[in-house]
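Key result, reporting period 2: structure in, sequence out.
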């Protein structure tokens, strides 16, 4: 996972306002672009490439810790089933 995207997701797991904005992204056709705009509002520079699935990627221990015990999942650019952004535990 891209380091900048990882930091953005960490911020989303801690920031209720940001989390609410991301949860409101329900239109799969515009979700990626809107998530990039939201990220910019919070000082993050992301691109559509950051949201593309990396086949065969292995999660680090830190990434596994973030999703353990439940997580928020926002489907972004969901032309590929099962692709989502995951934030840390609630």
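The corresponding designed sequence is given below.
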């Amino acid at each position: 996972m891209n380091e900048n995207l990882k930091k953005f997701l960490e911020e989303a797991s801690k920031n209720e306002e940001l989390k609410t904005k991301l949860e409101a992204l329900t239109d799969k056709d515009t979700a990626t672009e809107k998530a990039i705009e939201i990220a910019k509002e919070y000082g993050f520079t992301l691109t559509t490439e950051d949201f593309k699935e990396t086949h065969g990627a292995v999660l680090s221990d830190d990434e596994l810790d973030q999703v353990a015990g439940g997580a928020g999942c926002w489907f972004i650019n969901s032309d590929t089933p099962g692709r989502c952004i995951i934030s840390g535990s609630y």
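The CA atoms of residues 8 and 44 lie 7 Å apart. Helices lie at 3-14, 16-23, 31-41, 61-67. This case is discussed further under Risks and Mitigation.
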